[in-house]
C-alpha cells in the first residue's frame, strides 16, 4: 500500500508578500498626504479593517518611517469634539519615511549643487533654483484654469501630487472673533522629493514659494517646511489681499 505525502504549498507566499508590502507603502503615502491622520481614517480610505491598518502602522513606526504626532492639530484638520477615553493616535511621516518615498537620487543631486556652489558661488545655486521653478511655472500655468486663488490652489495641489509631492489644499476659515482677518487656504505638501537637498540649500524652498505666488496670483506665506523639520510643507494663501496697515 502506497502513501501520498502532501507538503504545504508556498505558491501564494510571494503574491501575499507583494500585496502586503504594496499596502504598507500605500499606508505610508496616505500618512504623507493626510497626516496627522488616525488608523480609523486610513482604514476608511483603504477599505481595510482598523486592526489591519494598525498592524501596518506598527511596522512602519518600528522602522522609523512614521511617528505619533503629539500636537494633533498643526497643519492638519481642525480638532473635533472632545471624546472620552483614550485619544486616537495621529500619525505623520518621519524623515526616514520621506527618504523611503523619495528614492535614492538625492545624494548625487546634493553633490552637484555643492560643486556648483563651491566652483561658481552661491548665486549659481539660487539661479539654478529659479530656473527649476520657472520651468514648473511654465508647465503648470496652462493647466490652472480657475479664476480665484482657492480654486487654483486645489488645481495646483493636484498637479503637485501627480509629481510626487502628496499635496492637498485645505480651507482655513477666519476666526469669527477676530475682525479683519481674511479666510485662507493652506497648501500642504506631505512629501518633498528634494527634502534632503533642500535641508542644505534653502534656495529651493524660496524659489518654490515664489513660483506658487506666481501660479496662484496671490501673496503666499510659507509657514513650515519638511526641510526644516515639519511633517509637511505648509503654505498659507489668503483669499483676499491684506488690508492697508497689515502689510
TrEMBL record:
Taxonomic lineage: Bacteria, Bacillati, Actinomycetota, Actinomycetes, Micrococcales
Annotated transmembrane regions: none
Designated name of the protein: Winged helix-turn-helix transcriptional regulator
Chain spans, region Disordered: 1-20
Residue ranges of coiled coil: none
Biased amino acid composition, Low complexity: 1-19
Record-linked CDD domains: HTH_ARSR
Amino acid at each position: 500500500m502506497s502513501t501520498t505525502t502532501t507538503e504545504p504549498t508556498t505558491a501564494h507566499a510571494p503574491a501575499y508578500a507583494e500585496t502586503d508590502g504594496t499596502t504598507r507603502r500605500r499606508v505610508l503615502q496616505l500618512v504623507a498626504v493626510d497626516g496627522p491622520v488616525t488608523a480609523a481614517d486610513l482604514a476608511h480610505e483603504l477599505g481595510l479593517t482598523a486592526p489591519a491598518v494598525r498592524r501596518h502602522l506598527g511596522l512602519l513606526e518600528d522602522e522609523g518611517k512614521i511617528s505619533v504626532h503629539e500636537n494633533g492639530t498643526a497643519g492638519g484638520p481642525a480638532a473635533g469634539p472632545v471624546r472620552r477615553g483614550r485619544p486616537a493616535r495621529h500619525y505623520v511621516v518621519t524623515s526616514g519615511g520621506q527618504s523611503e518615498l523619495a528614492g535614492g537620487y538625492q545624494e548625487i543631486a546634493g553633490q552637484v549643487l555643492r560643486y556648483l556652489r563651491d566652483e561658481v558661488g552661491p548665486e549659481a545655486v539660487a539661479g539654478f533654483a529659479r530656473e527649476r521653478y520657472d520651468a514648473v511655472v511654465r508647465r503648470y500655468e496652462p493647466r490652472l484654469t480657475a479664476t480665484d486663488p482657492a480654486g487654483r490652489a486645489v488645481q495646483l495641489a493636484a498637479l503637485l501630487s501627480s509629481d510626487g509631492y502628496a499635496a492637498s489644499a485645505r480651507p482655513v476659515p477666519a476666526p469669527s472673533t477676530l475682525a479683519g482677518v481674511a479666510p485662507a487656504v493652506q497648501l500642504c505638501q506631505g512629501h518633498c522629493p528634494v527634502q534632503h537637498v533642500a535641508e542644505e540649500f534653502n534656495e529651493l524652498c524660496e524659489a518654490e514659494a515664489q513660483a506658487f505666488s506666481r501660479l496662484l496670483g496671490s501673496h503666499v506665506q510659507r509657514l513650515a517646511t519638511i526641510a526644516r523639520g515639519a511633517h509637511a510643507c505648509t503654505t498659507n494663501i489668503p483669499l483676499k489681499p491684506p488690508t492697508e496697515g497689515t502689510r
